[in-house]
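Structural prep section.
Before we set up the soaks we want a predicted structure of the protein with magnesium ion in place, mainly to decide which crystallisation condition to try first. Input record follows.
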Amino acid sequence: MTKKIGDVILDVNNISLRFGGVKALTDISFNVREHEVRAIIGPNGAGKSSMLNCINGVYEPQEGSISFRGQTFSHMNSRQVAEMGIARTFQNLALFKGMSVIDNIMTGRNLRIKSNLFMQALSSSSVAALASASA
Ligand SMILES: Nc1ncnc2c1ncn2[C@@H]1O[C@H](COP(=O)(O)OP(=O)(O)OP(=O)(O)O)[C@@H](O)[C@H]1O
Ligand SMILES: [Mg+2]
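Run finished without errors. Recording the tokens verbatim:
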């Protein structure tokens, strides 16, 4: 079922990002509304990944701000961003070598796992349930 496009939830305002003399992003603004699908397109080196990395807190823009669900940030904090529900996938596959498929999937579920080291060591029912739900 198609959901009705709602209010702006992500608002990117006047973002500029430089790496030394390289201007990766200059005064970029756009927004995304609830239930809206937005695409960022551009040639190689245009700054698409850099923009996503500003939103997920990997890069810190020199100028501008990003608002998500009414909260405004000059620098996004990666952990906080993930907790707020922003997720990304990567241009290239980035799996942990030497880890099983299920362990790689569980890594992506890290923030949702409600357990502690002791529960994990004993493979408590909540940890086991999560593993089987993800399998
Ligand atoms: N960590 C970095 N250090 C220095 N320069 C960088 C860094 N990341 C990106 N750049 C530069 O910023 C510019 C934008 O790169 P970016 O990777 O964001 O482009 P892109 O649109 O994602 O390209 P592609 O389509 O190839 O993935 C390029 O000139 C790139 O060389
Ligand atoms: Mg890219």
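Observations: The chain has two domains: 8-83, 101-134.
Flagged for discussion at group meeting.
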